[in-house]
């Protein structure tokens, strides 16, 4: 089981985290069609965070479940009930202030695992603001959305007609991961949408019926617990390898690798 930072006492925390790894999962409370719970992004981010923290004898933070607003072309928008969100400026400020307090602890590495598509630019902005303030120093930061670590070769082998990650909202990969991790939260419905939205296009006014079918942006066909298990293992393997290798980090420029 991963160790929770919040389970430490104030008297313990400085010694326990000194020079070590802290993993923070960012999720959302967002509609994911009629077959998946509102907690998908949080469940997945938290699930990925645990094994990553364990691989480096680190600690996890509680998942952040209030996120950036859902957009029609990547999350179905706000036409479906259940999404709880804040504006981008509010999210940047929250993340920046949370990161400022985190970096007052003597941790050596922060890993942020994002599970909500719309969070990513605000997370990166907040991190860069904290970097410019000089609070990170020479400590290592790895912040990523879990799908960014999925190799094209894996997708080519394991999926067909992949629509792109922007349209993989409540589709085959998220459904499969939830079938693997929390099958008790997945209904028997398998809605499909055969016209995935284009990436990188903002539209107004939006024809919701054209963009999404019941809050799903692509197909759930082919989803299975077996595929979810394969994908989960692949992402963990890629994440641990990336952190151990540290390619691109000034702190590793001499070729040092994490053991």
SSE diagram, text form:
Layout: E1 3-4, H1 10-17, E2 21-26, H2 40-55, E3 59-60, E4 67-68, H3 72-75, E5 85-86, H4 88-102, E6 109-114, H5 120-132, E7 140-145, H6 152-158, H7 172-181, H8 208-211, H9 225-245
Parallel strand pairs: 1-3, 2-3, 2-6, 4-5, 6-7
Helix pairs in contact: 2-7, 2-9, 4-5, 7-9
Outline of the structure:
With 259 residues, the chain is of the alpha/beta class. It has one domain: 3-Layer(aba) Sandwich (Rossmann fold).
Give an overview in words.
This is Creatininase. GO terms for molecular function: hydrolase activity, acting on carbon-nitrogen (but not peptide) bonds, in linear amides; metal ion binding. InterPro entries: Creatininase-like_sf, Creatininase/forma_Hydrolase. It holds the Pfam family Creatininase. The two termini are 20 Å apart. The chain has helices at residues 10-17, 40-55, 72-75, 88-102, 120-132, 152-158, 172-181, 208-211, 225-245, and strands spanning 3-4, 21-26, 59-60, 67-68, 85-86, 109-114, 140-145. The chain is 38% helix and 10% strand. The relative contact order is 0.17. It has a single domain, classed as Rossmann fold (3-Layer(aba) Sandwich). The chain has nine helices and seven strands; from the N terminus they run βαβαββαβαβαβαααα. By secondary structure, it is an alpha/beta fold. α4 (88-102) crosses α5 and α7 crosses α9 (225-245). Strands 1-3-2-6-7 form a five-stranded parallel sheet, sandwiched between helices. The chain has a two-stranded parallel ribbon with strand order 4-5.
């Amino acid at each position: 089981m991963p160790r929770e930072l919040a389970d430490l006492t104030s008297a313990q925390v400085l010694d326990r985290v000194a020079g070590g790894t802290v993993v923070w999962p960012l999720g959302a409370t967002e509609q994911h069609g009629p077959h998946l719970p509102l907690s998908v992004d949080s469940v997945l981010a938290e699930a990925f965070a645990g094994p990553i923290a364990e691989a480096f004898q680190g600690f996890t933070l509680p998942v952040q479940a209030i996120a950036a607003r859902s957009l029609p072309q990547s999350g179905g928008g706000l036409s479906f009930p259940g999404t709880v969100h804040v504006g981008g400026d509010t999210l940047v400020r929250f993340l920046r202030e949370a990161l400022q307090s985190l970096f007052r602890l003597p941790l050596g590495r922060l890993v942020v695992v994002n599970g909500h598509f719309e969070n990513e630019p605000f997370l990166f902005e907040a991190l860069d603001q904290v970097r410019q303030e000089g609070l990170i120093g020479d400590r290592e930061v790895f912040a990523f959305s879990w799908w960014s670590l999925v190799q094209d070769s894996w997708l080519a082998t394991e999926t067909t007609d992949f629509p792109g990650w922007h349209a993989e909202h409540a589709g085959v990969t998220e459904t499969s991961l939830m079938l693997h991790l929390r099958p008790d939260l997945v209904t028997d419905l398998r809605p499909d949408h055969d016209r995935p939205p284009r990436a990188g296009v903002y539209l107004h006014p939006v024809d919701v019926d054209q963009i999404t079918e019941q809050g799903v942006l692509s197909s759930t066909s082919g989803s299975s617990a077996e595929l979810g298990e394969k994908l989960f293992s692949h992402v963990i393997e890629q994440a641990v390898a990336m952190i151990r290798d540290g390619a691109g980090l000034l702190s590793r420029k001499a070729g040092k690798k994490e053991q």
